[in-house]
Amino acid sequence: MYHGEKYPILGLKDKRTSKSASSLGSATESYGVSGYKSLSMSETRTLSNVSDMEFSQELAFGEDNDISRHSQDSQSIDSYSEQVNNGEALQACKNSVIQPYQKLLTILGWRPIFTAVPYHNQPSRCVRPINFFYPMLVFCVIILSFLLQFASCYRVNINIPQQRNASSMRHNFLDCQEFMISQYIIPDVLQLTAYVYAYYIYKVWDKEQLQTLIERVFLKSGSNKCGLSPRQLAKTMKAFVVLGFFWIVCAISVQILHVISQEQMSFTFLHVSSNAQYYTLVILMLLGCVILDTVYVTAIIDYVTQCQLLIYLLQGLCDRVRERTIDLEEAIKDIQEAETLSRIVNYRIASCISLLLFNLGLMAVLDCVAFADGRLLNFTTLMYMASLCGAVVWICISGTPFIQAARLNSACRAVLTLGHEIRSRPFGFQDTQTGALDSFLLFTSTITFKAKLFRTTVNSSFLCVSFTIISFTLLFLFQLEFFQVWN
Hints:
Elements: H1 3-6, H2 12-38, H3 40-108, H4 127-151, H5 166-177, H6 180-205, H7 209-222, H8 230-261, H9 275-323, H10 328-372, H11 381-416, H12 418-424, H13 434-445, E1 452-453, E2 456-457, H14 460-479
Antiparallel strand pairs: 1-2
Helix pairs in contact: 2-3, 3-7, 3-8, 3-9, 4-6, 4-9, 6-10, 7-9, 8-9, 8-11, 9-10, 9-11, 10-11, 12-13
């Protein structure tokens, strides 16, 4: 079988025949017919060897083209399948993270109930009043809940005997006035301010920040082999959402446990005449408490999730620079983008979180005081349990942002030292000019973005010192018998 017939696409049969004929023709012209006949044995072998060598070279070149073409096709198929997988993971993340998050914002009044209809710029006229009055309704429910808590003397660390006659109601109300400033006016004003400020942050200014950050991190994680895969990233984001719903359930359970522990509450000056009115007021009071607890958990989960996304973004950036899957110029652009995103989290969301954390800290302190000094306040076993559960829930919720901020600052410090690492050991950057390495070192050394809460940089050393001071303070107070748990 002739070799040219095996690879007809290369056209090797015609080339070999034509080259042999042209060579023989040139030999005939040079030596004549008789000369060619006299040199036919040697010259013909030489020409045949030359043509065989050329044919083998062209055959090898054709096989290399086929191999490269097949490799390019396989790479294109792999990249296409990888893009499809990344798109599926991103869509799954939107369904499991963004949609529940947007539903929570809608319940709190931070997002319109009815959005614009497709192919229309604005919602219909019937929808606009609902989107406008619903946040006002939520705001009124919160204020009504504050009024009902004061009327019923409902606070987690005081236990005033609840009686239904007029003289007892007046006595209870006078006892409530002793705690008016510390447990009613200051916490309620702070909680109302936190809700209004969060409304401004999440509805007026920061509408799609979390979704934008998720898409950017997915894009960066899908374009390289470093760091977490998009599917692992989606699972992590889903875990944060599940944790947020778990916290909401725990906070609601604590509020219900407090109401049950206080048995029959009297709403003093509101003059409740029937059980239906009484249970209606209790439900409205609990509804306001649930809304505020949902505000705390939603804002904190949003901050924690954005910090985690920034951590993944910075860790993936460091890995790509070390593996040299991107050049230094592109790394500088990615660092500037991460710095911009961190500033948004720092100066807008972190200030709102700081105010919410102050309120949560106040609630945790009230629960801790109620649990430690409950004997003096005539607490029952159920009240002890409610105070202990409340203290644990509020401490866990308020402590998570500090931990995430410290982890984000650790990732920022890794970026700061990345320039020194690349400059001192430029493995993989041997062909890079020294000026480019020095410029990258200078740029990373001047980065100033840090995670802050209460306008203070949070790091692991700060958390350790704070925990040590709080522990010794509590021990000191117990030794001085400021708190009595078992006596």
